[in-house]
Specification:
mainly alpha, 5 helices
Amino acid sequence: MEPTTTSDMIYYKEHLTLSNKLRKPVVEKLRRDRINSSIEQLKSLLDPEILNHPPDTKLEKADILEMTVCYLRRQQQNQEGISSTCSPHVNQAIVGVVAAAIVGVVAAAIVSVVVAAAIVSVVVAAAIVSVVVAAAIVSVVVAAAIVSVVVAAAIVSVVLAAAIVSVVLAAAIVSVVLAAAIVSVVLAAAIVSVVLAAAIVSVVLAAAIVSVVLAAAIVSVVLAAAIVSVVLAAAIVSVVLAAAIVSVVLAAAIVSVVLAAAIVSVVLAAAIVA
């Protein structure tokens, strides 16, 4: 069946190329083996000719082929000389022997071709099995890589979710700390207002006392001045206390923010370790 898609065509061409590469050395070896076998058979048939050859020289394949040609030519000449004197029955017998020899040679050639085809088929089948096994291994490796990527993505998602939860918790803690700081500032402002109201009341009372005690104006003025001084001192002390309270509240807020940052760092470290 011919391939229909582009991927099938590519696979078919690669498989055909691989088969040709694997088959070429095998076919070449079979061809050399057949040539060597035929040369050896010719040497066995040319024993008289080989005996006449000098023994100290090595026979090459070309020498054996030349000797074979000479031998066949002499045999042909002898057959032509014999055929002129032999009877038709002898000629028929010779023809039968030659035909049997040709049939034997053809049968041997067919057997060699069949054996070569069987070897090539085995080599091609082994190549196909190797390709299939390689494709299966590649598929398993790709599947393992995909699973690893999915697991890594899941781990990253879990880490990101933990980090987001940690950030949300830290924001909530910071919001609570800021709210506590705001409440502290409001309370400090209320304390300052009360202190200022007390100072105003003290000044009003001092003015009333000054108005009532006209006779003792000097004493009243001195006392009023003293009272005003005390009240102003108390106001200053109140303002200083309020400033101290505000500083303490701000310090508490800063400590709360630092603690929140430390909690966020610990949560992030825990998330990274997880």
